[in-house]
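User: Fold this; tokens only.

Assistant: Input:
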Amino acid sequence: MKISQHSLWTLFFVSPILIADPFEDSDLDLNALMEMDVQVTSAMKRAQSAFDTASSIYVLSKEQISKSGANSVPEALKMVPGLIVRQLDNNQWAISSRGVASRFSSKLLVMIDGQSLYTPKFAAVYWESLNVPLYDIERIEVIRGQGGLLWGSNANNGVINIITKNSIDTRGGYVNATTGSQLNLDANLRYGGDISNIGSYRVYGHIKNSNASKKGIFLTPSDTAKQHSFGIRADFTPNDEWSGLFQGDVTKSELGQNYRGVIDDTNVNMSFSGDVERTDSRIMARLENRMSPDANQMLQLSWFRQDGNQEFINENFESIDIDYQMNFIYESLQLDWGLSYRYSKISFDDSLFLESDKDLDNLQQFGGLIQAQYNIIPDTLDFIIGTKFDHNDLTGWENQPSARLVYKPLENHLVWSAVSRSVRTPTLIEFNDDYKVDGTTVLEALGTSTGVKAIDEYTIATYLNGNDKVDSENYVSYELGYRFNDDYWSVDFSAFHTDAENIAVISSNTNPAQFLPALGLFQAGLFQQAAQALTSTRIDLDVVSVGETTTDGFDVVLAWQIMDKLSTELGYSYTKITYDLPSGTVPTIGFDSTNRQIFTKVNYSLEDHNIFATLRVENSDAYVSDNYTTLDLTWNYQITPTWSTAFSGKNLFAGSHIEYANTSETYTLPNYIDESISFSITANF
């Protein structure tokens, strides 16, 4: 592994400084840091100890989030070891796990309280408009690896489930304001109370105004952000058998961004700036019933809408989800089963470089899951088997089975293994749309010179065409993990191997024969006719399901309670991706690459003061950028029981750097990421 000498000195220099003195913090001991003792729901779709979970799971606690100085969910996710979090500019992010992250990462499922944010057009998450109040997050559960059995298609590389707090825990008032070198104002207001004796509620609002980056790659940065949102949540518990919740929010965002796209007759990707206006609205209601001491059921209804208007692209997306699940225990058997239905409505105006072949304005998906966990040896050996079966309008029925084994030889040791299959259904871009991409010169298309410079250098209109014959991508993963948890330290290790087939790639057959008429006209001296022939020539690239990939890697996280008032965490992740492509094809996103990450986290407190630090050393050849080391450092001070303040430095040590430089991607143009500082003040009453 090639890690710079500067990065290694940084790693060993920072840790001793931060752990020099004891601290006092009763709510963030080792177990809270590693979160091995908490109950999680994302891995089994029912409450289970994170330590006993047969998957590579990491839980980011509310204590870590509040002490980190993060101002958004993507910033908070930088604290998750093994997760790829790359910042494109001051409002765009590329986030993934066990794969190559991109602006539109299609293999990572993101949810809020189990409500999917998946959009079938790009299969992406608009991180810049995802606005969940960090002070209302209970925890963020991150599964590195497949989650298709429980959550369905497009959870191939991981699942991120943002769990918000019950409103009974947010009664009273909360006010927070943050400002800094890149942030003019980030202000939050929340108030909660009781609903008679059967429930509780909270209402909250948020405004944000941030500055642009200092330096761009090709253009002056325009990545400012203006955002405001409003939300409400209510929880009800009328008796011991029934409980329910209702929540909703709306966020309006005005974002400046730099783009690359083909917007004129030159047929070449051009850099330009523009604004995007987005409105994200979300409603979710859940009803839970404890039928008996051994059985419970849940019904969840949710609605999600996104409206986006930006340069040359207008889109509207709306989805309705209905999920029902039942869990029960009979002697040594735990059985979970459920049904799901999703209706998606997509409205996407044709633009200068995007048009649809078919009139697909809605999609339906329905299916079910069944999962059984049998305790073969009491408290020692469990076997878990199940499958998720779904039907979608693009590829029909899909089946995603999984088998897992959990062995617990001693109370604080656990070994788990898993074999699972998951699918990624095609996006509408791949299935239905024609996308104008960076043009191809005649020289590039032929692979040899025509002998006529004017023809060689001519850029031909080039389209990436969707293909309604494209198949779902199939992933088969083999995983092995080990966990140990003691009073003072713990370790979590997982290794994986994934074989994938039917990977969507681009067929690059440019049909050289189509240029011969223009060449003949040019050689005959008919220059105007030759130019006209080239102008009417078009290169069509097709999406085809013929690629294969192999992904290998491992993650290890070590947490150590050095003393009563000091916690630290050290992690290392390694992922290698290898493509096996037929001749004449290229990947849609990514290429053969290796990703390495060193990660350390330190929490140190003394009386009313706290220092929280996260250091990441990123070494990867997947993003056309230099390796970099960043430190996020926050000092927290509890002035009184009501008032507190915090001072943060972010992206320290890295200087002005590029984290993502794949500028060949249409509609993606990153900026340099700078070091920044911020100051915040908070009141709880």
